[in-house]
Amino acid sequence: LQSLWFEEMYKFGAATRVDTPPITLQGPWTADTGKIPPWRGDYHHDLNTELSYWPSYAGNHLDSGQGFVDWLWDTKSTSKSWTERFFELPGLNVPMTADINNEQIGGWHQYTHSATTAAWLAHHFWLQWRYSMDREFLADRAYPFLTEVSVFMEAVTELDENGERTLPLSSSPEVNDNRLDAWFPTITNYDLALISWLWEHTAILAEEMDEPRAAEHWRSLAQELPEQAVDPESEGLLVAKDYPLTFSHRHFSHLMAIHPLGLIDGSDGPSARRVIRGSLADLEKLGTDWWTGYSFSWVASFYARALDGENAAEYLRKFATSFRLRNSFHVNGDQSGKGYSKFTYRPFTLEGNFAAASSLMEMLIQSHTGVVRLFPAIPKDWDDCSFKTLRTEGAFLVSAERAGGKTTRVEIVSEKGGRFEMLNPFGESFASHGAKLTKDGLTLVAEFEPGQKLVIENR
User: Fold this and answer.
1) What residues are paired with 433 via a beta bridge?
2) Rounded to 5 degrees, what angle do the CA atoms 437, 438, 442 make?
3) Those residues with Cβ within 8 angstroms of residue 302's Cβ, 6 or more apart along the chain or in another chain
4) Angle at 319 (CA atoms; ends 313, 322), nearest 5 degrees
5) Cα 81 from Cα 271, distance rounded (Å)
6) Which helix (H) or strand (E) holds 295?
7) Largest Cα–Cα separation, the chain
8) What is the pLDDT of residues 118-131, one digit of tens each?
9) Rounded to whole angstroms, how far apart are CA atoms 327 and 33?
10) Cα Rg, the chain, nearest whole Å
11) Residue 184 carries which DSSP code?
12) Is residue 457 helix, strand or coil?
């Protein structure tokens, strides 16, 4: 798995620059054979571009992530023109399949009609802000982008007979493929999670920009949304109300509220933990017959969020050994002959590679709740392990060492200053030097000046 991480991060660095077009399905490696590459080598915003950029945040490659959001910003006028022309509504959406100028190029009707594509892309503006704490980026890019997408979402949603907000057309990529039953009579958990996340986080950014009325407006809209649809028996998330996933499926779009959005997290209490466990149990029950490589990469992040290092590592091993060629590129289908998937074909795309690197980092460090967790989801036999200079939300750079099953040393450097909170991995016996550190219940809290360092060691 360590080799997997280095190989994927090498490819990530080779495929990304702050001043070049972002990663397509195959990035710069499409063979010049005179043929159209798989899926036209385009920009698929229903999963592929999003997963491809996950390593930039914890992996401390914000320049790569900046290249992605800069492109989304630079092509915003194209997307806005398409939004006005196609939906005849104000605000901003982005076509789900696009060319290098972010022009819609067609595809399944799920793709052409999706109302929430820009909301998932807006998540990357949020992550770029939270991991950098760049207030100029917040004011000039993140807040305006989220606001314009929120304006569109307000315009495209409507109140149903129960007074709850819904979409006139709602789907869940890529459930039911290109058939008419890809559209559901009620809003899907995929669309619901994205809209809820968008309005709540636009409100947070409005508060950061000292615009309380705007924050109140977006929160009031979010309160009109229904709860995520949950199976009363398994307690796992459904695709939509009264619609469980009944077959093995590659895209976990119905679980967006768990990862990457974090709307449902184990730290929220027993009820949230039951939903996470139930959702993963439902996936296990349906099996992996119709998963592709990226499914194995992504599900490792779900298990990491569930603090289950054994399963997270196992799914990454299956990805690394069965869904990559000898040159390490992800080829969608199972190449091992072990029967992990009935897909055995070989179209090459990159998102599985980069999601795998991100999932490994989810096993080593998490900060999405505002409280940093070190080694939250590693297998029990990883007694000795370490990482250097991974990034957390709040613009902190963290290095940590573990020996004999215990965390022995942590180094934190703050780029922007501010409060750092971490679940205490040391117990009562530790020593520190650098920034001021206090113990607050189960957490350690430090207040940093910009550029300040803190070292904590087991005593």
Assistant:
1) 455
2) 120
3) 252, 255, 258, 259, 276, 279, 280, 283
4) 130
5) 43
6) helix 293-305
7) 65
8) 999 999 999 999 99
9) 19
10) 21
11) B
12) strand
Specify the amino acid at residue 413.
V
Residue 84 burial class via C-beta count within 10 angstroms: exposed 0-12, middle 13-18, buried 19 and up: middle
Q: Is beta strand 436-440 parallel, antiparallel or unpaired with respect to 443-448?
A: antiparallel
Neighbours of 26 (CB within 10 A): 19
Give the burial class of 397: count Cβ atoms within 10 A of its Cβ; 0-12 exposed, 13-18 middle, 19 or more buried.
Answer: middle
Give the model confidence (pLDDT) of 320-347 as tens digits.
999 999 999 999 999 999 999 999 999 9
Single pTM value for the model:
0.97
- Strand residues in 301-382 grouped as ranges (E): 365-366, 373-374
| Type of residue found at 319 | F
Distance CA 266, CA 252 (A): 18
Token output for 419: 């409060």
Distance CA 75, CA 310 (A): 42
pLDDT for 30: 80
Beta bridge partners of 418: 448
The answer to whether 76 and 95 have CB atoms below 8 angstroms apart is no
- Strand duo 406-414 + 443-448: pairing: unpaired
CA 188/CA 399 separation, integer angstroms = 40
Tokens 């709602």 sit at which residue? 170
Is 433 in a helix, a strand, or coil? Answer: strand
What single letter denotes the amino acid at residue 198?
Answer: L
Q: How is residue 328 written in tokens?
A: 């390490």
Residue 369, SS3 per DSSP: coil
Which tokens go with 129? 């802000």
Q: Which two tokens stand for residue 6?
A: 């280095």
Cβ-based neighbour number of residue 360 at 10 Å: 28
pLDDT on residue 33:
79
Q: Is 80 helix (H, G, I), strand (E, B) or coil?
A: helix
Contact 171, 184 (CB under 8 A): yes
User: Is there a contact between 415 and 396 (Cβ–Cβ < 8 Å)?
Assistant: yes
Token pair 């149903």: residue: 160
Residue 159 has pLDDT above 80, yes or no: yes
Tokens linked to 288: 């992996």
Rounded distance between C-alpha atoms, residue 124 and residue 142, angstroms: 9
Is 430 strand, coil or helix? strand
CA–CA gap between residue 281 and residue 293 (Å, rounded): 20
